[in-house]
Give the backbone structure.
Amino acid sequence: MMSGMMQAGFKPRLPGVFPTSDNTLISNPTNDQYQLVNQPETTLLDERDSHVIQYLKASLSDNSLRAYRADIEHFVAWGGCVPTTPESVARYLAEHGGKLSNATLSRRLVSISKAHTSQNYSSPTKSELVKATLKGIRRAHGTTQRQASPILKADIVEMAENLSGMIGARDRALLLVGFAGAFRRSELVALQCADIEFVNQGMVLHIRKSKTDQEGTGRKVAIPYARGKHCPVLSLKAWLELAQITEGSIFRSVNRHGQISNAALSSEAVAVIVKKLAATIGLDPQSYAGHSLRAGLVTSAAQAGVSSWKIRQQTGHKSEAMLSRYIRDANIFTDNAAGGVL
């Protein structure tokens, strides 16, 4: 049925009901010319369903909504449509294999699948044709992903050494807290004064929501006092006192005159700060990003012999497998086979 329609020049449009930040309805497209066989009918939502719409919107983070929308727009700009066929998705993958990273292609498939299942269409990405095409692209073009280099403890100390002024105080606190807490950049900029609890051993920070905790269950991260002048707890206290921040966001933008904004730093700003400070100690800024702080704590802790379950307690990783890459790289010289004979 679908192939006949395609041959006749019919091209279903991208449904306006795909969930986006400005359109949260999830329903079937209205198009009398095109109906899929064996597709369940979905009830359209209207203004009377405001609570339903509100919860549908809350089911996905803003970042996820933006990513889904961008992916689908790229697919449609190429010539795709929703709903579509496995053959069309396979052609899309084949045309972009080697041009887009394998991680990007995998994410596009998730978005295409979401666009279908959210409207009760069968997902074309589940077909063996699509799976085999993606597998072939991975074999032909490799699966190595570019990863942000970890900033190790020695790097952090050197980067924080000569920081001064209002911006320097903020950047030192951001570096040390981000590293010691192994925070994602989104978690770091979301911290509020109400999330800090200073205790005898150091401080406890309450992470209210994160990438892997969209329901907002939350978790607590303990950061102890550190020996020496580069203590994350004392650095955060110094920043808050200097900036006279007693409520609201902890990490904020500061202009060159030392004036502090009421708004929180953006996640992108964390990456910019990390790159800038990496360059000051002779590191290649292109190799570092906001994630370098989180990766740095994991790598440094693994090198110091900290158990993986204690590392996961700090990072919030759900499984051992998620940490394996960092720990494997950190211990690459431990009991090295070549080292035993050289």
User: Anything to note?
Assistant: Residues 62-78 form the longest helix (17 residues). Confidence is low (pLDDT under 50) at residues 1-45. The chain has 14 helices and five strands.
